[in-house]
Design brief:
mainly alpha; two-stranded antiparallel ribbon; globular
Length: 97
């Protein structure tokens, strides 16, 4: 069952591949929200651009240290890297026949 932390919904997955993909998508979204390139985030997080590229593709098993560096660079809590947005459901009035 999802847990709430503050006003955001956090999904807890036990599948490592799904968890890596969720973190990857969140890193990409947060980076793009700030208008940063991969190189800019990599520099701010003190990781290589190539390493960040692998992270954003969900192909890198991150350490807690790396998660903390990325969160610090983005000025967020580490937990926010695991945040997921609830899926939007079509309202009954907007459903198509």
């Amino acid at each position: 069952m999802p847990r709430t932390l503050g006003a955001r919904l956090y999904a807890v997955s036990t599948d490592p591949a799904k968890l890596l993909k969720a973190v990857a998508q969140q890193v990409v979204r947060l980076r793009r929200d700030r208008g940063w390139t991969q190189e800019q985030l990599a520099e701010r997080a003190d990781v290589s651009s190539r390493y960040l590229q692998r992270i954003e593709r969900g192909r890198e098993n991150l350490t807690l240290t790396t998660l903390a560096k990325i969160a610090d660079a983005l000025r967020i809590r580490v937990a926010e890297l695991f945040a997921t947005k609830p899926k939007r459901r079509a309202s009954p009035s907007r459903r198509r026949p």
